[in-house]
Model the fold of this input.
Amino acid sequence: MSAMRVDAKVVMLGKESVGKTSLVERYVHHRFLVGPYQNTIGAAFVAKPIQVGDKVITLGIWDTAGSERYEAMSRIYYRGARAAIVCYDLTDSSSFQRARFWVKELQNCEEHCKIYLCGTKNDMIEADRSLRQIDYHDAQDFAEEIGAQHFETSSKSGNNVDELFHKVAEDYNNNAFQYMTAEDTGVDLGQKKDSYFYSCCHN
Amino acid sequence: MDGEGQRAAASWENGTLAPVDRLRSERADSPTPGLVEGTEPGAGQKSAMFVHAQSFEDLTAEAEEEARRETELDKSGECADDLKALEEQHSNDVSSEARTKEEDVSSEAWRSHRKHVFVLSEAGKPIYTRYGTEEALSSTMGVMMALVSFVEAEKNIIRSIHADGCKVVFLTKSPLVLVGVSRTCQSDKELLRELQYIYYQIVSLLTLTQLNHIFQHKQNYDLRRLLAGSEYLTDNLLHRLDRDPGLLLSAVTCLPLPSSSRDVVSSSLQAAKSKSLVFSILLAGDRLVTLVRKKDQFLHHIDLHLVFNLVGSSSSFREGEGWTPICLPKFNTAGFFHAHISYLEPASELCLILVSTDREDFFNMSDCKKRFLERLSKRTAYTALKEALKCPSYSVAQVGIPELRHFLYKSKSSGLYTSPEFPEVYQSDEEQERLMGLYQDLHSCLHHPTRPLRSFYRCSESENLLAWVTSGFELYLCFSPLGTKALAVSAVTKLLKWIRKEEDRLFILSPLTY
Done:
């Protein structure tokens, strides 16, 4: 599976038990596993090709563990990521605080990473509206403030899940060209040499 | 070679256990077992895979040293009162917040569990309890810590309390304190060994360095924050300690596989190497298929059991490829390895674990796995391996000793053991645990700290048992209650011959290094 060329690194972040693994499971394997909660250990990687227009883009999805124990490791998972899906549980306000933490972390360390804010377990809200602890508009406002896309999904029903990942791939496809050119100039050896001498002369 | 064989046979029949002068390379072709370490059935031909340790002693050596240093402490009278206080504490401790799924710690059911395990910090803060919630037990654990400190204040170490059919065993591993409360007939030493495992389990998640660092900075830190979501690993390990002969014997069992196939699997794994790769481990459920290691680097069986527990307890590696930091405490308590964990095929039982020193090396490891699988899937050995998965064990009837019901055989030099599946009479969980309990008893008699035994025969209503330990192997046999002692003794020779005949299939005789 990993033999595939990976175009875009996507990282799942969020408090434990918000449903990051379920989201990946739904998107990659089209299923929702019922059963006792099992926390992710470390992180899990899966590559998934997705059709965008006439191109096939392979997303390399890193499903990270939410436990604080692995926080020190998290940087290796989001470093160089083109997209981060920051998840929070719509029925758990503390998970939104944790989402804010991850957003801040990404803003500080990965400026090229596009953020997708994702409220999970929407099916529970649909069954009982009183369970909602995160107002849709509050989350929407926060998303706008940080320049993120905002989704509310249900891995159980599959609602909005494909749309979320499709948007990730689409955005990657639209931005890839600009990003690549920027990168190219960044590693242009001639230029680096020049700037090196330039800085030398001025020291 | 014939002469060698006879010599070995003679020494066996005479019951002399004096070592026979023989190099490991001059392995006898004769089926008669050598009694010398390194020539017993199942001994590896070149080198051992594991740290060569008198494994069981290894686990308890520290505790014994302490015992030697400390004068024996007999506080049973005094402590019985303390224990009573502790129990009263339980009954008063009614937590209104107890989660519905969790047990009420004031209930009779909670108290009557066979074995409790508690982990607390030196500040007396609860870290783990096997049953009930930690919150509900905070005052109980406070009492436990008070007992530890009280004895410590007089420059002593509290080791155990025996009262009312109940044993309370303490293990102080700064910055943690582990307490076991048992109603089983296990010895203190056995219970301590189990607590050690739990301690290593926690260290494998955090490293000792991190653990020390945390408590140096904040003595009353709530460690449950960092261990969140790992409780089931400890629960499972405790379950294994009750059921898995490997943890008792400090050994690992292998998937029975023709040696020709195993060698192909091993060499395919050997070929898929990488600079940072230290261990490649292929598992089939709880059984080792093969293990390839870096030259001069050995894996300790405790570390391997922790890896088994991690993989076996979690379904999270089923999808995609797992990448997780793991500390192998017997290798090094200070740092993390990084393990690439994945199943060879989605529904397969075959799980590959690649242990790397570099946390950035995921894609390299992923590539190693790919290369291994590409190479292996072209060979017929892969088909043989998949075929072998269908019968991961064997019936004791194959040995051809009518009264023999079950046995455990450990080759000391290779650290591997073999055992048939449980027969009809031990099909229920309770019966299996009872048999394991009997083996545990024999094991503690053989490994008694002051009066160890070489052999031990025990008759009971439901079975007769024989245990035998030499410098080369450990053997535990379970016979029907109709068997006799003479029959049991003759069965040993017959069984060892059978194991010698089957050793190619049951053991890993030629472990590889990169």
The CA atoms of residues 344 and 350 of chain B lie 6 Å apart. The mean pLDDT of chain B is 83. Residues 485-506 of chain B form the longest helix (22 residues). The radius of gyration of chain B is 24 Å.
